[in-house]
Amino acid sequence: MKNLALGRLSAIPAQLARWSLDMLLPPRCMLCGETVAEPGRLCAGCWPMLDFIAEPLCPCCGTPFTLPVPAGMLCGACLAKPPRYRRARAALVYGGGGRDLVLRFKRADRTDLARGLADLMARAGAALLQDADLIVPVPLHRGRLWRRRYNQSALLAQALARRSGKPAIPDLLQRLRPTPSLGGLGRQERRRALAGAIRVNPVRRELLRGKSVLLIDDVFTTGATSGACLRALQQAGATAVDILTLARVVRPELV
Ligand SMILES: [Zn+2]
Ligand SMILES: [Zn+2]
Question: Which of 162, 179, 187, 206 has its CA 20 to 30 A from that of 22?
Fold first, then answer.
């Protein structure tokens, strides 16, 4: 009885502390720290610094078109070589404010941004979320996870799961060895660096059969990392894989 009462009492100060913190610290803009009306929002000044990806875009890879095109028309790259994923979408162009936002979330311990960033992703990937049976983040190697303390893609996947009611399985994919930074590597070299590095967790394998998977990452660059995840998911029996990222490099050859 005494323990029960103590247990209840100890929960109260924690909640009180959170309420008072919320009152002391008003919600801040995700990018500049300016006061905003709700947590996980951007202030009016920062909104234009972000390049939101919007229609018209390629229905397969999500690359934005610079000119209006007939509905359903694929981009040249998807026509020439259809990707193995079903659809890829991203909320932001990776550059300027979009890059700052990704780096703040990924490297500066700003895990509190996950919910607001997932809101942006949910808007860009509404159809993908609706068609997903499972939400799966791109895995980090445990050495890197230990250093960074969190997997930014898993936080986004969990926030999207809470929003959509679809299950997120953070340990469905595993990174078996650390992969070097892929920056500056060509397509073939990236593929070689990732060969055999990502697998489906054997104890989760059964979950995948016949399922439509939504793969989550923070940035889509050349698609090498998500490609390695895609191969593992498809080999294990996933019927379709969509990819949703917070940002994407829109013209990788220029970056
Ligand atoms: Zn701002
Ligand atoms: Zn395309």
Answer: 162
Q: Are residues 230 and 245 in the same domain?
A: yes
101 vs 245: CA distance, rounded Å? 13
Q: Cβ distance 31 to 45 under 8 Å?
A: no
Kindly give the distance from the C-alpha atom of residue 254 to the centroid of ligand 2, in angstroms, as a whole number.
17
CA 242 – ligand 2 centroid, Å: 13
The DSSP 8-state label assigned to residue 96 in this structure reads T
Residue 139, pLDDT > 90, answer: yes
Is 208:238 a contact under the CB 8 Å cutoff?
yes
Around ion ligand 1, which residues have CB less than 5 A away? 29, 31-32, 34, 43, 46
Q: What is the extent of the structural domain holding 120? A: 50-254
Q: What is the mean pLDDT of residues 165-186?
A: 87
Q: How far apart are CA 121 and CA 244, in angstroms?
A: 7
Q: How confident is the model at residue 6 (pLDDT cuts 50, 70, 90)?
A: very low
d(CA 232, CA 196): 9
Contact between 117 and 160 (Cβ < 8 Å):
no
